Amino acid sequence: MTEKIPLVQLIDIHKRYGQGEAAFFALQGIDFVIEEGDFVAVMGPSGSGKSTCMNIVGALDTPTSGQYLFKGVPVEKMTHDERALLRRKYLGFIFQGFNLLARTTALENVELPLLYRGVPREERHKLARQALDRVGLLRWEHHTPAELSGGQQQRVAIARAIVSKPLLLLADEPTGSLDTKRSIEIMRLLKDLNEQDGITVSLVTHEPEMATFAKRIVHFRDGRIESDQGG
């Protein structure tokens, strides 16, 4: 029987910033696996290495040493353009600050990843509307971010992240700028996308209450994984 290949596998990952006495070791020998269908919450104090690790998983940064395999393919050996293609085809990103274009409608914001992929206009429009419908915002498709609440803006950002049907959704403090009620709504949506749509989710959060929505909680401390629970 063929052994299943993990979606993400980090093997003995180190990340150093700077040289000599000024060097800072952000990651010190990380071994970390994300299976397809996982929902992982990554936690830890500031400077623990959690965001550095997720930046490497998201192909936004490269390790100083060690191996990163995405579906068995070594990412650390990829060129800048190949990593950009990996992000575009297989990864979706959600940030604390929403990162929506201010003068652009919700629909046009969601269409952006498809525009970069060269998807024809009619198909773009159809897929973007489907994604907005999936997050419960189809009625607001012609509204700009200024006309939406913070929770609605984050839903638009989630629709933008899932419109290209990524294998992995990377969420960096997605509830950090929302009140508790809106935060819970967003976490329920992410959980639903994971369970109903089969999207693998990796979430960075400081909030224990939000981490409970995940199937697995990984704690970082001082550049190392301190604990890995659940799964």
UniProtKB/TrEMBL annotation:
It holds the Pfam family ABC_tran. Gene3D superfamilies: P-loop containing nucleotide triphosphate hydrolases (3.40.50.300). One of its GO terms (molecular function) is ATP binding. Keywords: ATP-binding, Cell membrane, Membrane, Nucleotide-binding, Transport. It comes from Parasutterella secunda. Belongs to the ABC transporter superfamily. This is ABC transporter ATP-binding protein. Residues 8-231 form the ABC transporter domain. PANTHER family: CELL DIVISION ATP-BINDING PROTEIN FTSE (PTHR42798:SF6), LIPOPROTEIN-RELEASING SYSTEM ATP-BINDING PROTEIN LOLD (PTHR42798). InterPro entries: AAA+_ATPase, ABC_transporter-like_ATP-bd, ABC_transporter-like_CS, MacB-like_ATP-bd, P-loop_NTPase. The keyword DNA-binding does not apply.
